[in-house]
Amino acid sequence: MARNCLTLESVRHSLIRQEDSIIFGLIERAHFPINFPTYSQSYVSNSLHTFSGPLLRFVVKETEALLAKAGRYANPEEHPFFPEDLPPSVVPPHNFEKFLHPPAASININKDIWDTYINKLLQLFVTPGDDGNYASTAASDLLCLQALSRRIHYGKLVAEVKFRESPQEYEPAIRAKDRDTLMKLLTFEKVEEAVMKRVAKKAMMFGQEVTLNKDGNDGKYKVDPSVVSRLYGDWIMPLTKHVEVEYLLRRLD
Ligand SMILES: O=C(O)C(=O)C[C@]1(C(=O)O)C=C[C@@H](O)C=C1
């Protein structure tokens, strides 16, 4: 859909679709135990001294460098975790429609997303242990981080649509830099409740063992549906709303 035709219904529809990518990402990651060395400061240090630090950082940084050359970050819906020193794109530029308000478009909270994912979320949906599959673990973390980042930063589009639909409602709070009022204005509790129920249901459907005999999967899922619901309620939606508030605060700049 052309950006300028976006409505609250269509951006919500995109958020619903993105739930699938996030839940599949979580299921893939939950296939491995925590594998702490993936995040250890000292795991990667090679004799060439080309890189040192956590393996996950290495994998994300190198992947982003490659994707930047392929033009990924020219798309306003994509946000790199390591925006410093990205190489230029080698592909012809695409004329992405400018839908966001330019002074607010550059918000990037990937640092918070990274810290939250590593320090809070992972422990909730992966088992303890170490199976040595650190590179595969980092590759599945990368997919989760990208899906989460895309969803959370989608809050910019949601905020823009809300602002365009009723600017008079938002302008006084933006001028007063009143974060609490903005947060109240953009919060729809009923929608949040529906999101939490739907993601739990999707986690049940996507995460069940599919067999050819009649036995059910004994209520066992690849990722706990109640945890998925909690990840959304406690972190994913609050971070999305944080992006919405930050965006609106710059909407009249
Ligand atoms: O649907 C909206 O209105 C949004 O702003 C998105 C979202 C979410 O993150 O899913 C965030 C805030 C609302 O309270 C409801 C849902």
Q: Can you tell me about this structure?
A:
There is one protein chain. The protein has 253 residues and is an all-alpha fold. It has one domain (3-87, 99-249): Orthogonal Bundle (Chorismate Mutase, subunit A), CATH 1.10.590. Helices cover 59% and strands 2% of the residues. It has helices at 8-30, 55-69, 102-105, 110-125, 134-153, 155-165, 167-175, 179-186, 189-206, 225-249, and strands at residues 44-45, 52-53. The protein has a two-stranded antiparallel ribbon with strand order 1-2. The radius of gyration is 20 Å and the shape is globular. The mean pLDDT is 94. The structure holds prephenic acid (PRE). Prephenic acid is lined by residues 12, 15, 158, 186-188, 191-192, 195, 237, 240-241, 244.
Question: Topology, please?
Answer:
Layout: H1 8-30, E1 44-45, E2 52-53, H2 55-69, H3 102-105, H4 110-125, H5 134-153, H6 155-165, H7 167-175, H8 179-186, H9 189-206, H10 225-249
Antiparallel strand pairs: 1-2
Helix pairs in contact: 1-5, 1-9, 2-5, 4-10, 5-10, 6-7, 6-10, 7-8, 8-10, 9-10
Bound molecules: prephenic acid (PRE).
Prephenic acid binds next to helix 1, helix 9 and helix 10.
Order of helices and strands: HEEHHHHHHHHH
Low-confidence stretches: none
At CATH level 3, the topology is Chorismate Mutase, subunit A
How far apart are the termini? 27 Å
Average of per-residue pLDDT values? 94
What would you say the CATH architecture is?
Answer: Orthogonal Bundle
Number of strands: 2
How many separate helices? 10
